[in-house]
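PROTEIN DESIGN WORKSHEET
SECTION A - STRUCTURE
LENGTH: 125
TOKENS:
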């Protein structure tokens, strides 16, 4: 499990942690049943409070990506590959919807936005 926090980001640390772990889960880098490190260990390693990590774990549990078992720890939840694909798409759509508010506020049309997106995300083929 790799997490890198950016103090310069507008995204709170708990959300950065949750987003990065969620991405690792939906990409299949963290397999179903894999244990997550204890909250206190993650907090110490990242230099954040236990409350921050607990909030990230709560977000992941609400999203159905991890299961917390009292006295045993937290584990990556079991999902079929199609469920992970659906979750991955839902996560992307949620973020894109938020970001589009910004671009619409700047007055970009759909075609202008797509042209911008192509500049930073060129077609690989």
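SECTION B - SEQUENCE
RESIDUE ASSIGNMENT:
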């Amino acid at each position: 499990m790799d997490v890198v926090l950016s103090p310069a980001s507008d995204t709170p640390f708990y959300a950065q942690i949750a987003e990065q772990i969620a991405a690792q889960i939906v990409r299949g880098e963290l397999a179903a049943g894999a244990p997550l490190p204890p909250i206190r260990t993650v907090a110490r390693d990242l230099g954040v409070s236990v409350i921050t990590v607990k909030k990230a774990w709560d977000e992941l549990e609400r999203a159905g990506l991890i299961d917390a078992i009292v006295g045993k720890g937290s584990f990556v939840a079991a999902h079929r590959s199609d469920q992970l694909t659906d979750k991955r798409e839902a996560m992307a759509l949620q973020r894109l919807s938020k970001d589009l508010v910004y671009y619409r506020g700047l007055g970009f049309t759909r075609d202008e936005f797509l042209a911008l997106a192509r500049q930073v995300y060129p077609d690989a083929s």
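SECTION C - NOTES
The first strand starts at residue 66 and ends at 69.
Helices lie at 13-26, 39-46, 50-62, 81-105, 110-120.
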